[in-house]
Amino acid sequence: TKNAGFSKDVCRSMVAMMDVDRSGKLGFEEFKALWIDIRQWKAVFKLYDKDGSGCLSPFELRQALNSAGYRLNHHILNILAHRYSSKNGLISFDDYMMCAVRLKAMIDMFKERDPDNSNTATFTLEEWVERTLYS
């Protein structure tokens, strides 16, 4: 429902995304950075939820993610639309936030392991499992 707050899963993912020291909590600076992201993602959602329904179509999701700075190919955008849309094919605000949080976490994690911008990152299996489970 509108203005009911975020689901527990979205909240957990938000904390995990910003929890640099893996303490399970956010310090003030971590929270401030998260708040900036939340405000940006919310503004983008409102911009593309043209009818005010509280949902985005897969096409609007593409536009919203592009506007939020995510440059993703058609294949990845299709995967995201299928993963985060409900049975009616629409993406709720909560699901959009989960999508944005997870995308940011994964991209940040990748960039951390790709210091020379070669578009290649290296992880051990243990590191990959830890990072993907705690996101």
Automatic annotation (TrEMBL):
<dbReference type="GO" id="GO:0005737">
    <property type="term" value="C:cytoplasm"/>
</dbReference>
<feature type="domain" description="EF-hand">
    <location>
        <begin position="36"/>
        <end position="71"/>
    </location>
</feature>
<dbReference type="Pfam" id="PF13833">
    <property type="entry name" value="EF-hand_8"/>
</dbReference>
<keyword id="KW-0677">Repeat</keyword>
<dbReference type="GO" id="GO:0005509">
    <property type="term" value="F:calcium ion binding"/>
</dbReference>
<keyword id="KW-0479">Metal-binding</keyword>
<dbReference type="InterPro" id="IPR011992">
    <property type="entry name" value="EF-hand-dom_pair"/>
</dbReference>
<keyword id="KW-0963">Cytoplasm</keyword>
<protein>
    <recommendedName>
        <fullName>EF-hand domain-containing protein</fullName>
    </recommendedName>
</protein>
<dbReference type="InterPro" id="IPR002048">
    <property type="entry name" value="EF_hand_dom"/>
</dbReference>
<dbReference type="GO" id="GO:0012505">
    <property type="term" value="C:endomembrane system"/>
</dbReference>
<dbReference type="Pfam" id="PF13405">
    <property type="entry name" value="EF-hand_6"/>
</dbReference>
<keyword id="KW-0106">Calcium</keyword>
<dbReference type="InterPro" id="IPR018247">
    <property type="entry name" value="EF_Hand_1_Ca_BS"/>
</dbReference>
<keyword id="KW-0472">Membrane</keyword>
